[in-house]
Write a structure and sequence with these properties.
Layout: H1 6-20, H2 28-39, E1 44-47, H3 54-65, E2 69-73, H4 80-84, E3 85-90, E4 95-100, E5 107-111, H5 118-130, E6 132-135, E7 138-141, E8 147-152, H6 165-168, E9 173-175, H7 182-195, H8 208-219, H9 225-239, E10 244-246, H10 250-266, H11 274-285, E11 290-291, H12 293-297, H13 302-312
Parallel strand pairs: 1-8, 1-9, 2-5, 5-8
Antiparallel strand pairs: 3-4, 6-7, 10-11
Length: 319
Amino acid sequence: MEIMTVEEVAQRAKEILAEIEKAIIGKRQFLEKMLCAVLADGHVLIEDLPGLAKTLTARSFAAALGLTFKRIQFTPDLLPADITGGYVFNRQRGAFELRRGPIFANLVLGDEINRAPAKTQAAMLEAMEERQVTLEGETLKLPQPFIVMATQNPIEYEGTFPLPEAQLDRFMMRLTVGYPSADEELEMLKRRWERKKDEIIIRQITNAAELAGMRRTVESVYVDPDLAKYMVNLVHTSRNDPHLALGASPRASLSLLKLSRARAAMEGRNYVIPDDVKFIAREVLLHRLLLKPDQWAIGQSIKSIVENIIFRVPVPKVE
């Protein structure tokens, strides 16, 4: 498909978000950041409490974007082959045949990814990074686009295998949903009794080919050199912070670049402004930083440190 104009991308983004908001009520900013990641070709980690529509969000995005969808429920006994698939002997044909696992989909939901052992997590995260899997020495490309939305529960750690920092770094951003307000929850109930069923029909707004066109438009969005320096300064400031044992990696700088371009295109602009960077900076940095043990012991929080970094780094004036 031919490249789209930023105005067309912005209009299509509004239509996608409006359709998804039929299912997800009162979480516009959360949904906008999710769509930024989709347009920036990145994976998302959603970390929040049970019952806050994390799975429904992923299903709704797949339906509105016209993408194939698979859900993987991570458990302690899940094996890598349960994700990637493998060769199975067909007795009728007398030969081995490939049975593809659920990873072969455009949008894959990894539910409670921290419940699977390290070997299984590694198989999933390798596919995320390489966009391919290797079975019996044969390399198989994953369908394009390929997006992973993984979830984990931030309070229930019994029987879990926390993701190492190197694996967390492969997620472009980490998001939280948050509880709805009383009015939003009342609206949710109202829509349910008017629907008279649990199922919510999400209309397809676009498709994989058009999404590829939207991504090409995002790649054409202009970034001022001073703004690029601002992104790098945010990341380097995290590396020099005395409270942190681990600062953000170069992947964070790349994520800031790609996500801010996506945000600009969604707003109908072919250039990035500082507010685009600030819109997604917290979600890019939060999961990439590691507190020093003494700071953790006194109750210091990563969130407050990220806020301080964003406050301290001078914002450039861009014409």
